[in-house]
Structure formats: structure tokens, C-alpha cells
Amino acid sequence: MSAFNARLNYLFNSYYHQTATQQEQDELFEIINSSASDAELAALIQEAWNSLQVNEPLFDATKSMDMLNSILQSKSHPDNDHQIRPPNHNQTWLKLGVAATLMVFVGFGAYVLLSNQNNKKAVNKKTIAKAQPAHDVLPGGNKAVLTLANGKTITLDSAKNGLLAKQGSAHINKTKDGQLIYNADGETGDNTAAMNTVATPRGGQYQLVLNDGSRVWLNSASSLSFPAVFRGKTREVEITGEAYFEVAKNAKMPFRVKVNNTVVEVLGTHFNVMAYNDESEMKTTLLEGSVKISNKDNSNILKPGQRALLKQSGRIAVNDDPDAEDAVAWKDGIFQFRDAGIETIMRQAARWYDVQVSFEGKIPVKEFTGRISRNVKASELMGMLKYMGVNFKIEDKHITVIP
């Protein structure tokens, strides 16, 4: 498959699964608009449709065109971000000479996207199930264990909503949307030793709100240790794995994140720290505010749109990161890659799907750019890579990548 064909397949797959960015949608419709050969484009569209493995019956061309026009002219879905639409600079996106196959695909695709978005007509799940591999792996979800200072453990994914425990002046609550919230009643009680830990397994994630109002998202195979109530001159927490922070501002009490022998210090900001043991370097990405990163040998200040890479040697390298949003897409339920190697992608997949990964033969030397929901099954993520010539097989909880 040529690079162009692979890109077109990827764009259609992303659009169909509602994960395409506005830029990717514009690129898709620009290809449709500028195609010099309708017959060739129709063949490519049919190939893209086949790759989706939806196995839904296609409508005839007349019905598809009527349905498409109805959708495009409809005013009943003004807030639908996934409605089929062209780039703003070209409102007559569907050329009259485009082959019937194109009309069928786009018409049906619009129908599925809109009906799914509004819960009026679901895709036939039994039909889709037949297209899935015999072996597949479900995505991860909200799973974590809370360990209190006294050693008591609470499995958060199965715990009832409401008050879970009290620690001095701290009340620990679980909300119906799967968050853990710490609230403190006044300043009574000594909470300096009431250290808690929330740990997610492989295939898990969790969100919590600390007693100062700071929000923390934990990715899979990660942990956060923190006091039930912050006391003293600093707010200190410690993490393993990966976490995204939105720190509540308090100039009198800096917020410090300890990661191994490194400290990230902030007053109030949004940033992501990725420090898995199986990664070659620790990465801190700053989206808002400023942070200071230091260890025993080095110290650096990050500005928004920058990232710091902590090498194994202990050196801290700071550089601009124009794609900072990619680093935090996981907290919004998205796998997002930009020029990523297959090993990088598979490490993320292994943690999220709780699978073992192996490579059969030589590891493919390719870079991938793409975006797909983390709520899809493992086969669908791997299907995105298949467009670029990387095959795979899934057996039980094991994914084998085949060059």
C-alpha cells in the first residue's frame, strides 16, 4: 500500500470512529475536492470502506445522495461536532462527477456518525462482532486501589459511591463519575502522618481531587502518594508512572512532585509527568504556568509549550514542544501519536490493555502519526498500524507484532 493510500485509509478510519481532528477532517475533504480522477478516488474510498470491517449493507447511490443532502442541510444538529462538513473555504465539497461508490460511502458514513452521536440508531453490534478477531482485548477503565495511612485498602472501582473513610479532619469521598475527592473540615486534627496512596494497575486509570483543590489524573500502572491534608510550608506528593496535574494556586505553599531523585516544583499550573521504568527517559511537559525541575546536579525552569527530558545520566534537557497536547491526550481518552516508533506505541498499548507484547523478527523501523480513542479494543488500535504495513496477531493477553 502506498503512503497516500495508507494516509487516506487512516483519515477515513479516524473520521468514522469520531477521533479525527478538524485538521484531519479538512485534509480528508481536500483530497475529495481536489481529486483529478473520480474513478480512482472511488476505488480508494471502497478500499477504505472495506478496511473498516463494519460489514453493514451499503445503500444504493440515489438513496445515499438523498440522505447525504438531507444531513448536510439539516438544522436539527447544530452542535454536532462530528457532522460531515467540508473545509470552510469550500462549501461545495461533493463534486457532481464523483462515482456512486463515493456517494454510498460518505452517505452511509454520515448516517452512522450522526445516528450514533444522537443515540437514535446504533450500528448492528452483532454484525461488528463477527468482524472482530477471534481473540481480542478490551480497553482499560477506571481501576485503582486506595491505601490509607493505617494500611487499610479500598478497591475504588468496586467501592460504593459516597463517604469511604475519615482521617482526622479529612473526609474521603467517591463520586458517581468515578473520582476520589478529599475534603477537610477546618484545621483541627494532626494529619501530618496521614499519607495515602492511590495506585492504578495495568489497564487502569483514575482521577482524584486533593484537599487543596488540585486535580490529578493517573494513567495506567501508576501511583500517587499524598497527605490527606496538606500542612506546613509545602504541598508534597510522590508519583510513579504517569500523571497529569492541574495544581491549585497557593503562592505561600508551593506544590512539589517527587519522582525518583527529581523534584518538579510549581505554584499553580498544568503539566504532565511521564516516568515509567520501561521508558528511556523521564518526560515533563508543561501546558500552563511554569515549573522548576531539579535533581542533585541540575535545575531548569520550564515555560508553557516546553518539555524537559531527564536522561539516565541525570542531565536535564529542555526544548520546545509544539505538540505538547499529544503528551496529555491520554487523560481525555485518546491515543495520540506524532512520528512515534512502533516500540513507543506498543509500550503504551501494553500498559493500557494489560497485555504482553513481543516482536516476531526484526522490529519495523517506521514512524506513525495518528489519533484513536482509548475506548476501542486492542484489534482496532492495531488496525490503525496495519494501514502502514505492520501486521499483528492477538492470542489471549499477548500481542505479537509481525513485520
Summarize this structure briefly.
The protein has 403 residues and is of the alpha+beta class. The chain has helices spanning 3-16, 22-34, 38-51, 61-73, 100-117, 125-131, 324-328, 342-353, 378-386, and strands at 141-142, 145-147, 153-155, 162-167, 170-174, 179-184, 195-199, 204-209, 215-218, 223-227, 235-246, 255-259, 262-266, 270-275, 282-288, 291-294, 299-302, 306-310, 316-320, 334-341, 356-359, 367-373, 391-395, 398-402.
Keywords:
single chain; 403 residues; alpha+beta; Jelly Rolls; Phage tail protein beta-alpha-beta fold; 19-stranded mixed sheet; three-stranded mixed sheet; 9 helices; 24 strands; globular
Number of domains: 3
**SS content category:** alpha+beta
Radius of gyration: 24 Å
Number of strands: 24
Tell me what the CATH architecture of the largest domain is: Sandwich
Q: What's the CATH first level of the largest domain?
A: Mainly Beta
Account of the protein in words:
This protein is α+β, with helices and mostly antiparallel strands and 403 residues long. It folds into three domains: 129 residues, no CATH class; 186 residues, Jelly Rolls (Sandwich), CATH 2.60.120.1440; 70 residues, Phage tail protein beta-alpha-beta fold (3-Layer(bab) Sandwich), CATH 3.55.50.30. It is 26% helix and 32% strand. The chain has a 19-stranded mixed beta sheet that branches. A three-stranded mixed beta sheet has the order 21-24-23, with helices on one face. Helix 1 crosses helix 2. About 20% of the residues have low confidence.
